[in-house]
Task: inverse folding
């Protein structure tokens, strides 16, 4: 059944409360000042027009849309001006109840046991000017975030946290003008970030471990075929840890694979591996990537007692590493017990940021195909995972403003 807003129900929340599994909630253009929580499985929430169906929190509510049931699809709408998240997908009761985030962003759920929401889809969503994350999957599995746009995230545009194994695919998204474009914390195991445009943030992408969330350490994510460039945009919210000018940052993450990414024009470094306070970065593989115009292409630095081990490179197009000659001295394959060398380089000073509420408004984004005539979306129990062999290196032509990376 299709429930139309406002034809059949005056608000989105009222329509969602009427929906049964398999129903479509179809929302007409308008600005809706509400926070929508979807607690019924297999409901599709879709806007008739991505740019004209706007859920606006007016900086008075934590979340625009909260998905707290499996098999839910959120499609073809805009979420903005929420104090925490644009779209939150979670199996955590505390997070769904809009508990306050911890010091560095993610939710500290205390003694709450880890409960996963299984299966979700976020597609053709614009999330802008939100005080924590634009699109946030936390304690969730078996999902896809695709064809979406995130900007003005005071922590990051897209975030995946606390899942193992994740079985989550983040593909064909644009994330710009955020503190961090994509952030993965304690997220690994069939965790794919593929074919995204992460350009013009303060930091393009991070994957790492954090004691604030459960399921330590972060390990086993695939970062492939992404364009990660020019991540030193001043007109962005200030990054909590002071990061600036970095394409990819690995902080205590292990066994991750970075494959055929184009990493360009990041003023500090293209890819940095470091250790969080007591969690080493172990066994990360950097293969067949192209680095151009970065301050340092690849830099390894371990300022704490925790050191890296078994990190290696193979087949990359690059010009500079710290320490020098990593392509030779740390060539893949490498034993996980081999201590990773460390060095230092001159890092640029990050300028002050701007409030997330002042980030530039997004341009119109591509619409969900046949939004008015397609029925409810069936979200698979487990998504199809990318074939890594079919993920190409993005063309240099995609460095042009607004060019979109496409996955096969």
Result:
């Amino acid at each position: 059944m299709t429930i139309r807003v406002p034809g059949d129900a005056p608000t989105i929340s009222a329509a969602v409360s009427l929906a049964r599994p398999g129903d479509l909630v179809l929302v007409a253009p308008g600005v809706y000042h509400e926070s929508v929580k979807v607690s019924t499985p297999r409901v599709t929430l879709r806007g008739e027009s991505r740019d004209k169906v706007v859920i606006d929190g007016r900086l008075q509510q934590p979340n625009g849309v909260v998905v707290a049931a499996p098999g839910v699809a959120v499609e073809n709408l805009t979420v903005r001006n929420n104090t925490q998240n644009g779209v939150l997908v979670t199996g955590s009761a505390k997070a769904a109840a809009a508990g306050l985030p911890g010091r560095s962003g993610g939710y500290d759920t205390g003694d709450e046991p880890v409960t996963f929401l299984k299966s979700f889809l976020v597609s053709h969503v614009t999330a802008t000017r939100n005080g924590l994350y634009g699109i946030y999957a936390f304690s969730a599995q078996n999902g896809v975030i695709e064809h979406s746009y995130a900007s003005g995230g005071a922590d990051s545009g897209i975030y995946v946290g606390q899942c193992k194994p994740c079985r989550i695919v983040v593909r064909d998204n644009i994330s710009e003008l955020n503190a961090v474009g994509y952030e993965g914390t304690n997220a690994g195991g069939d965790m794919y970030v593929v074919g995204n445009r992460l350009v013009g943030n303060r930091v393009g992408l991070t994957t790492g471990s954090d004691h604030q969330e459960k399921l330590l350490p972060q390990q086993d994510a695939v970062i492939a075929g992404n364009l990660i460039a020019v991540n030193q945009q001043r007109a962005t919210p200030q990054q909590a840890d002071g990061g600036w000018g970095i394409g990819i940052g690995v902080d205590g993450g292990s066994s991750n694979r970075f494959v055929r990414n184009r990493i360009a024009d990041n003023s500090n470094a293209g890819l940095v591996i470091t250790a969080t306070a007591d969690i080493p970065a172990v066994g990360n593989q950097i293969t067949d990537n192209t680095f151009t115009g970065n301050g340092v292409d690849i830099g390894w630095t371990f300022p704490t007692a925790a050191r890296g081990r078994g990190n290696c490179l193979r087949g990359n197009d690059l010009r500079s590493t710290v320490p020098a000659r990593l392509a030779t001295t740390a060539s893949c394959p490498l034993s996980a017990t081999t201590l990773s060398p460390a060095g230092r380089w001159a890092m640029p000073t990050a300028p002050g940021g701007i409030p997330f509420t002042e980030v530039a408004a997004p341009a119109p984004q591509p619409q969900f195909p046949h939004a008015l005539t397609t029925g409810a979306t069936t979200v698979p129990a487990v998504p199809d995972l990318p074939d890594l062999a079919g993920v190409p290196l993005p063309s240099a032509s995609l460095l042009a403003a607004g060019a979109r990376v496409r996955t096969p």
Q: What stands out?
A: The chain has two domains: 2-225+370-386, 245-348.
